Every structure is written in structure tokens, then in C-alpha cells.
């Protein structure tokens, strides 16, 4: 039996489970809000072209209106000024789109402190227990924030001082960008950076440092709670938008059960 035949039979027989990590995409999908004077993306919406009527008697279809960074989506280097000479979303290496992943669960700390920032020591403690971060793979950072994703206000968790959502410390972001072999960081929040990231140094450190190092981000993931810490194969399917800084993506995980 070939490797691919074996994989197909394992999926069909349930020995390998496919877990959908993607948030449903609709007009109610939470989106990032930047303060003035910065411009913001648009919410997702469908515009009907025809639906079994005089505009098209036997077919239904829509135009879609969305931003590149809406819902579960992929960030690529050209999204940030530090990576402006890097690749766009149509040029992402295929080995990044099909790659191993590990899941670091810090949901308890995020529940106690919505401004929790992942540290280098946190990651090192995890690797001491579970093994090294995957070479060319993904670090998926579980905070439990996907449980808030049905409500924009609860998801952004903002007050007069800004949004309060967990993220990564600047020191850890630099270390992940420069000293680890991962291809990217995946999170459950609206962006890869913490809600208070505008006040960090550098501002938005995950965007600045990881994208500047030619790495990637995945945001608004769901169902990380169902994954084991290791042994995950991640499948990421963005639209190959020429010149695009990112794209909504379907993200699936293959897990041996």
C-alpha cells in the first residue's frame, strides 16, 4: 500500500480525524477595529447575483465582499512594512500550507488575565515537556478565546484603553522570529498580536518581527481545544491572490486517533 493510499484509508476508517479549525465566515464574523485616523477593513457580506429566478433560472450565486484579513485568515510577509520585500499570499511556499503543528495551551492563564503575554520561558517550559518546536511547522497558541467568537464586542473585549486580548511578549516574538525553526504562529484571537500591542515595543511585535523574518500568521482559529499538544498535520488553504497581503483561509488539522 502506498503512503497516500494508507492516508486515505486511515481518514476513511477514522484512524485519522480531520478537525476544522476555521471560523464560519458571515456578516457577523468579528473584525479588527483600528482607532482613527487608521483605515479599517469591511465586514464580510454576500451580494446575490441570482437565485433560481429571472436573473438566472437554474442557478444560485453571489459576489462576495470582504477584506483579506477577515475571519480565519493567513498573514504573509508583505502585510507588514518589515516584510514589504517578502512574498505575497500567492507565493507562500507549499510546505508552509501543509506542515506539522504543535499546540501550546495557555487558556488558564488567559482566563485569569485577558492581557496575558506568552513568554520565552513559557515556550521553553512547554518544549521541555513535549519536545522541540517543529522545523518548518506551526506554533498554535491556545488561549480559549474562540469561545467568544460569536460576539464582536466580547471577542474584541475593548474599553477606553483599547482591546484586551492575549498575545505574545515582544521578547518572545523576536525569539520565535529569529531563533526558532517555525514557519508561523496561529492564534484564536482577531490578530496574532495582543489587544494592547499598540503600546508594546515594538508596536505589534508579532507582525513586525515574524512577518519581517519571512514567517506567517494565522488568526481566528477554532477548536484548538480538541487537538493534542503534538502530532498534528496542518492544512492551510488561502486564496492565491496575486499581490495579496493575506487571505481568508480554510484551516484543517489531521490528527491520529
From TrEMBL:
Is 4Fe-4S one of the keywords UniProt gives this record?
no
Q: Recall the GO molecular function terms of this protein's record.
A: hydrolase activity
Name one matching Pfam family. Cyclase
Q: Does the keyword Hydrolase apply?
A: yes
Q: List the EC numbers from the record.
A: 3.5.-.-
Q: Which domain of life is it from?
A: Bacteria
Q: Which UniProt keywords apply?
A: Hydrolase
Q: What is this protein called?
A: Cyclase family protein
Name the source organism. Answer: Amycolatopsis nalaikhensis
Amino acid at each position: 500500500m502506498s503512503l497516500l493510499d494508507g492516508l486515505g484509508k486511515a481518514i476513511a476508517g477514522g484512524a485519522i480525524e480531520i478537525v476544522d479549525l476555521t471560523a464560519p465566515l458571515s456578516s457577523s464574523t468579528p473584525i479588527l477595529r483600528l482607532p482613527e485616523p487608521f483605515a479599517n477593513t469591511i465586514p464580510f457580506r454576500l451580494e446575490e447575483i441570482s437565485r433560481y429566478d429571472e436573473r438566472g433560472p437554474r442557478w444560485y450565486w453571489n459576489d462576495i465582499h470582504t477584506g483579506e484579513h477577515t475571519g480565519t485568515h493567513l498573514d504573509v510577509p508583505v502585510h507588514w512594512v518589515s516584510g514589504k520585500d517578502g512574498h505575497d499570499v500567492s507565493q507562500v511556499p507549499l510546505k508552509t500550507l501543509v506542515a506539522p503543528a504543535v499546540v501550546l495551551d495557555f487558556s488558564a492563564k488567559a482566563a485569569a488575565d485577558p492581557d496575558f503575554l506568552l513568554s520565552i520561558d513559557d515556550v521553553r517550559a512547554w518544549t521541555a515537556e513535549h519536545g522541540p518546536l517543529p522545523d518548518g511547522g506551526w506554533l498554535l497558541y491556545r488561549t480559549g478565546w474562540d469561545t467568544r467568537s460569536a460576539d464582536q464586542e466580547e471577542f474584541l473585549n475593548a474599553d477606553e484603553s483599547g482591546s484586551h486580548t492575549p498575545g505574545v511578549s515582544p521578547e518572545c516574538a523576536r525569539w520565535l522570529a529569529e531563533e526558532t525553526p517555525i514557519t508561523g504562529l496561529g492564534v484564536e484571537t482577531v490578530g496574532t498580536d495582543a489587544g494592547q500591542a499598540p503600546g508594546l515595543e515594538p508596536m505589534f511585535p508579532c507582525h513586525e518581527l515574524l512577518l519581517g523574518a519571512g514567517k506567517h500568521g494565522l488568526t481566528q482559529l477554532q477548536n484548538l481545544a480538541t487537538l493534542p499538544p503534538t502530532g498534528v498535520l496542518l492544512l492551510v488553504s488561502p486564496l492565491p491572490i496575486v499581490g495579496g497581503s493575506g487571505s481568508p483561509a480554510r484551516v484543517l488539522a489531521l490528527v491520529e486517533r
